[in-house]
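INTERNAL AUDIT FORM
Audit reference: QA-55
Scope: verify that the stored structure record matches its stored sequence.
Auditor: D.O.
Record contents follow.
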Amino acid sequence: MSLAKMLDQLIVPVFQAPMAGVSNPVLAAAVTNAGGLGALGFGASTWTEAEAAMNAFRAISEGPVHVNFFCHEEPKRDSAIEKSWIRRFNKEFEILCISPPTALANPYDSSQRDEQLIDFARTYTPETISFHFGLPNGNIVEALKSNGTNVLTSVTNLNDAMSALDAGTDGLIAQGIEAGGHLGTFDARHDDAMSTKDLVAELKRLIDVPIIAAGGIMTGADIQEMLSSGAVACQLGTAFLLCPEASTNADYRHQIKQANSNDTVITRAISGRAARGIKNRITHIGAATSSGDIPDYPISYDLAKHLNAIATEQGVSGYGAYWAGTGVAEARETAASALVATLAQELAAVRTEAVR
């Protein structure tokens, strides 16, 4: 199914963000079945896990699905920096009454050169595959497109967008600085920090492919604002975090319910790449650390995941990767299908009011 046809078939122009660790087949199917586009995030998954999730989705939805993979550069290992990073958290390990790790590991690999993507797309036929932090090599992109898969990628600036178009992408996810989670910029060292609205408007002036707006979008009014700026649809992540279908754990949900927009920060301390989330004990340490002293993505994530796993086991809060955008205070605790319906109603009301 072409991207244009898929977009035409959506009842409401809403993409659920493919949030790795939070999205799951039940959430994705609920969104798709309600008339949006559900998504599954496979950036941190094994192929066995990705295949199981696709089978589970297909069992409960006949509609389209969007799946996502990470295409970061492989990390440059530096044992001195990594050991120093561990030492910075000695106090936290003492608080949790456990010894720190002696070394860090790479928690997952990049899909940049993983040709198993081609076999996965042929076997499971996801209508759309998107990428974060860049794109896979040209052979993979060409094979995906030849298979009839729509290829999207997140971009945060014009340079990323032009690189994506040169690679043959079918559309762009314009991710503004308000977005929760990792910034999808291709170059981990640089980002223009553009708002979602400004980024969409700039891309629309210069680029003739579908643009999906992402970042700070929580309501039907927000959706209409992005559509008016030139987007064909909007991708929402934070808006779905409190849905009962999401795999958001109890600690994460508690943090969201207590947060306001001023409680989110962009940090490299959790994973090694810039990402927006609710402040925690790790971001506090990161705020006092030079970016050059933080191990490359995703090596830093190994330490953060280790700390959070221990804290979760002990019932201690404050160590999770509470990824959330600036609109976190507007998150609604409701079923995913109900949220999609509410967004559709809000969007219709804004449009009705505009023609009066």
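Auditor finding: record pair retrieved intact. The chain has a mean pLDDT of 96.
Action required: none
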